[in-house]
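Inputs:
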Amino acid sequence: MTQKLNILVWNEGVHERNNDPATMADMYPDGMHGAIADALQRYYPDAAITTATLASPGFGLDEETLASTDVLLWWGHMAHDDVPDEVVERVQRHVLGGMGLVALHSAHFAKIFTKLLGTTCSLKWRNEGERELVWTVKPSHPIAAGVESPIVIPEQEMYGELFDIPDPDDLIFISSFTGGEVFRSGVTFSRGKGRIFYFSPGDQEYPVYHHPQVQRVLANGVGWVAQPQQHRQQPAVTNPARESFLA
Amino acid sequence: MTQKLNILVWNEGVHERNNDPATMADMYPDGMHGAIADALQRYYPDAAITTATLASPGFGLDEETLASTDVLLWWGHMAHDDVPDEVVERVQRHVLGGMGLVALHSAHFAKIFTKLLGTTCSLKWRNEGERELVWTVKPSHPIAAGVESPIVIPEQEMYGELFDIPDPDDLIFISSFTGGEVFRSGVTFSRGKGRIFYFSPGDQEYPVYHHPQVQRVLANGVGWVAQPQQHRQQPAVTNPARESFLA
Amino acid sequence: MTQKLNILVWNEGVHERNNDPATMADMYPDGMHGAIADALQRYYPDAAITTATLASPGFGLDEETLASTDVLLWWGHMAHDDVPDEVVERVQRHVLGGMGLVALHSAHFAKIFTKLLGTTCSLKWRNEGERELVWTVKPSHPIAAGVESPIVIPEQEMYGELFDIPDPDDLIFISSFTGGEVFRSGVTFSRGKGRIFYFSPGDQEYPVYHHPQVQRVLANGVGWVAQPQQHRQQPAVTNPARESFLA
Amino acid sequence: MTQKLNILVWNEGVHERNNDPATMADMYPDGMHGAIADALQRYYPDAAITTATLASPGFGLDEETLASTDVLLWWGHMAHDDVPDEVVERVQRHVLGGMGLVALHSAHFAKIFTKLLGTTCSLKWRNEGERELVWTVKPSHPIAAGVESPIVIPEQEMYGELFDIPDPDDLIFISSFTGGEVFRSGVTFSRGKGRIFYFSPGDQEYPVYHHPQVQRVLANGVGWVAQPQQHRQQPAVTNPARESFLA
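Outputs:
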């Protein structure tokens, strides 16, 4: 993967700031965003990869930054409401214009995710360190390339159906958990001219983003949502004259 | 179709109030909503069919009304912004809880529609009375039952691609226009526990809702989105104990 | 559900003929087809429900029978190859013309199923009596109406991903098993003018078709695939003159 | 697009052999396959691009050739039945194992296409040199990258709905014709581990494959269906022991 991409890993950063859980600083000395950025850099050595959090100036999501971002990864959990609506609308506009979005784990409840999908994005959860198995169900999809089936994640928060999302464009991964629940854990959506990938493994209690297979999925996801050639402009209403396409 | 349903035909009613176009009062003496309600009553003689507009108390969309509505049809054009956000959120909650929604023509830009879909829902348009042909592309779908292909609508506003919507669950109808544009004119979506049908023919300048085939499509659409047995509650997050499903 | 339907429950009948497993005669004194037919009759008291097997004259699948059948349910396992190709082609023609098909369990390898889907329809399996949990993931679908989530089936054969099918029109149920595998256990397809529902629970070793929730799913599936008003003719090539639709 | 790919452009070659229409030799001195191969070579200068026809030894589709082919393009019309069933089964096995397939124009009736899709793939047609407009409806898809909307093809055979195919994974292009018909002219399917793209413009009567925009679509399609890293093996049934994935 030699594509030159501009990748922004956004994490609210609250668990890191509070060192909550107490293992956070040991597991993720540079934050979850740092670990993800490092992993992506190995897959995309030529990419320009940056990170930002709630504490960054302008949340790290100002117009100029977004305009030059090919792929935005988003992790959020405790502080969804601290992202102002105008920032969310800005991000939405860029996604509809072609910026790729990779939404991670508890970002199912991020404002940007529910706004793009239109549903509650609610789900079942239980945090008891159950084993998660991530099974590939669409092996022809680029995001499944080179990924083991199942990925075995020894400990994870359980996310279970009903996951209240629209029917995805592609259902790539389905997870099961020790307790028997299942979850559509890897799904894609297209919205406007943009592509979205949601991947559920990644709770702050466990070192999930250090798992080599999870890193591969994220790298594949970044490659798939990226459209560096896409003209960044969301679709707009037009009133063309008859046969103006012949001009 | 003998199902007993509660159907609410909502129309902003601005074109009717202003008699704009000047043919409105002649074409639709009881408004477009009146004509639609009459047509549906012939298909569903046992249904309780009511109408409401922007001028109705509480916009005709208060909690009690929505709670007892199986299917809401929505026509809007000039006054999308006059529907308050809290009303839109209420309607969204009911759709996600199982109320059927049939969005008509320029309702592609209604707040409730863009909020449920997450995209701009923009499109091309040109209002020169072109002929619209509505072709069936999914004949196995209940909404296509008994519908001629193509439906020939002598004069209509042109709506053309790109129609910025998410990939629909079902693509049932595709239209072409005299000028050569095409449009996904009949599409379904599921959101939460609810079903949505969008049907584009129906500009205020032409007597489209008197067309028998258009009426049949609307009747089919109402039948398909209706879930009178569905427990009206949008999906919500839960935190179940291990194997609580055995209880 | 008062629809008057013609329903044919087809079972190869080999496990019944051989009383294999030895519990068969006790579990299903009238065969699995008999149990299914009885269950459906309770949901559709006005329906004409018949059964047929490999041993029936003409396999019970002659032209006249199919022409008057609204819904065909199919169970097969040991003897897929004993169904002649011309019978399979006849059934395919009727499905494409609008006859509903409900394919059950090991019918994933029935000639009619792989022929309609175009893939291998292969899967993982293990028959150790694991618990199967059937989770609803599309609660707005008619086939999910009134169905508990999860359905708990105490003992079943494991069917696991990768299930090599085309992306279904609707993914309604996902199952998990004690061993951790997952399976898209309830899926729909449209082919031609016909509707297909595949439901995987139902191994011959266990009394699955006596499970009230499984019976409800089958009844819902029958109701959803049935199109008694559909003109039974598969799509065919035509060469229309310009604007012949105006005639 | 610098990917090194093995591309095989297959054309039955009957129109070329018979110089039918009489303009064939002038329009396509190296056959339609030759023109397509030349166009692809410009987009993929490093690719190994070969052509084959019905007259090639082993139809140019022997096991060894297919095993080393990343993408197979297929044009056929007069002689679908001259491709033996065992060749079709071989091609199907390779597609299910990950070989990309780009099916062109009248290949909608090629055995390999109907076998992979399971439907009649019938359609309306009329060959009067009508103008075809090809509109993009999924701008986020790689096959739409850099493609004008609409593509204007001055003269083409009309292909019209109902096109009897399964719901595609992605609907990328919809065409309209002078006579008012519409057609889903660019659609994708995944089958097994393989990807399929069907693109309808390309009748033998008109120089469609010299159209720069059509060439771009074909190049995009080749890039999208290609999976040079995919292990070429169609999915197969397995009987894994409990938790064998931990080994």
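Remarks. The beta strands of chain D are 6-11, 48-52, 71-75, 100-104, 124-136, 151-160, 170-177, 182-191, 194-199. Helices of chain D lie at 14-17, 24-27, 31-43, 63-67, 85-97, 111-117, 212-225.
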